[in-house]
Design goal:
Blueprint lengths: L1 E2 L10 H17 L12 E2 L3 H5 L4 E4 L7 H10 L3 E5 L6 H14 L3 E4 L6 H4 L10 E9 L14 H11 L3 E8 L3 E8 L4 E7 L7 E6 L3 E3 L23 H11 L8 H19 L5 E2 L10
Parallel strand pairs: 1-2, 3-4, 4-5, 6-9
Antiparallel strand pairs: 6-10, 7-8, 7-12, 8-9, 10-11
Length: 296
C-alpha cells in the first residue's frame, strides 16, 4: 500500500490536514489495535507515476477537484481501477474528460459522496412508512467564501442525498441565492419535485424530509439509521464513512461501478443549470444531457 500526499494553495488547511492524515495512516498500519492485524506500513511516495508502480487500484482524495483530471488520466491509462472522492472534477468538462478516458481505456472509474451510502438516507427510498417517494426536501451546509473551484463540491453531499432518495431523471431547475441560503428546486421527468437548501447561516445539519404515497417522514441524519415510527435514531452505531468504504472495497476488488457515469454527469448538469438559473434571477433552466458528450 502506498500514498502520494499532495495539497493545494487554494485550500489553506490542506497542508495541515495532510500531515494529520499521514500520521493517522501510518499509525493505523504500524500500531493496530489488535497486534494480529499488523501489516507493512504505508509507503509515502513523491509522484503519481511512482505510486502506480506500487498498487493495483487507486483512490484519489485530493480536495481540489482541478487536480483530478491529470491525476485520473495517469491512473486510468495505467489500467488501474479508480475511485475519486467527491468531486469527480471541478467542472463538467473535466468530468466528461475523465469518464471518456475511463471508457476508452476500459478501466472502471466512479465517484461519490459518503452521504449516498448513509443508511439514514439510502433507507428512505423504500421506507415502509413512506412508500413510493413522490418528493424530497434535503438540506445541508453551504461553504461561504469557498474557492471558485469548489463550485461543484459545496452542494454535492446534499445533492447526492437527493439522488439517493429520488433517483435520477431531473429535467430542469430553478435556483435562488441569498446571504443566508442557496435554494434549488428540481423537476423530475415524471413530474416529481425535489429541493435542496444550502445553509449559509445558522445551525447546520444534513438530512431531509421525504414525501411518499403512504406517509411523510424525516430522513435519518448522516451516519445513523432510518427513523422508525417517526423517531430518528441518534444512539445507534455511528457508521459515518463505513457505507462508502464498503462500496469502495467491493469495487476495488473487481466489483461493478456502483454509480453510473450517466447519473454522475446528470448531477454535474444539475449544479451547472442551478448556477445558470441563479445568474438569471431564478429562471427555469433545463439540464444539458452531458452523457451524450461521452460518445462525441
Amino acid at each position: 500500500v502506498a500514498a502520494y500526499p499532495i495539497g493545494s494553495d487554494d485550500y489553506p488547511d490542506s497542508d495541515k490536514l495532510l500531515e494529520q492524515w499521514k500520521k493517522q495512516l501510518l499509525d493505523m498500519y504500524q500500531k493496530p489495535k489488535d497486534p494480529k492485524d499488523a501489516v507493512p506500513p504505508i509507503e509515502m511516495v513523491n509522484s503519481v507515476d511512482e505510486l502506480l508502480k506500487k498498487c493495483d487500484a487507486v483512490m484519489i482524495f485530493s480536495m481540489d477537484g482541478r487536480l483530478h483530471l491529470k491525476q485520473a488520466t495517469a491512473v486510468l491509462k495505467a489500467g488501474k481501477r479508480l475511485f475519486i472522492s467527491r468531486p469527480l472534477a471541478s467542472s463538467p468538462e473535466d468530468a466528461i474528460a475523465i469518464l471518456k478516458v475511463s471508457s476508452e481505456t476500459k478501466t472502471p472509474c466512479w465517484s461519490s459522496s459518503q452521504h449516498r451510502y448513509s443508511t439514514g438516507f439510502s433507507g428512505m427510498k423504500n421506507h415502509p412508512e413512506v412508500g413510493r417517494v413522490i418528493g424530497c426536501d434535503v438540506y445541508g451546509g453551504w461553504t461561504v467564501n469557498a474557492p471558485e473551484a469548489d463550485k461543484f463540491t459545496r452542494p454535492l453531499h446534499s445533492i447526492e442525498t437527493l439522488y439517493t432518495i429520488m433517483g435520477p431523471g431531473v429535467v430542469s431547475v430553478t435556483c435562488t441565492s441569498t446571504p443566508t441560503a442557496e435554494s434549488i428546486t428540481a423537476l423530475w421527468n415524471d413530474g416529481r419535485v425535489g429541493t435542496y437548501r444550502g445553509i449559509k447561516e445558522g445551525a447546520v445539519k444534513y438530512s431531509a424530509t421525504v414525501f411518499g404515497e403512504k406517509g411523510v417522514s424525516t430522513a435519518g441524519i448522516y451516519g445513523h439509521g432510518v427513523p422508525v415510527n417517526g423517531v430518528v435514531p441518534t444512539n445507534d452505531k455511528y457508521v459515518g464513512y463505513e457505507g462508502l468504504a464498503i462500496e469502495m472495497a467491493k469495487f476495488l476488488k473487481g466489483g461493478p461501478v456502483p454509480v453510473s457515469p450517466a447519473e454522475t454527469l446528470e448531477i454535474f448538469a444539475l449544479i451547472q443549470a442551478a448556477e445558470a438559473s441563479k445568474a438569471q434571477n431564478g429562471a427555469v433552466v433545463r439540464l444539458q444531457d452531458l452523457s451524450k458528450k461521452l460518445s462525441e
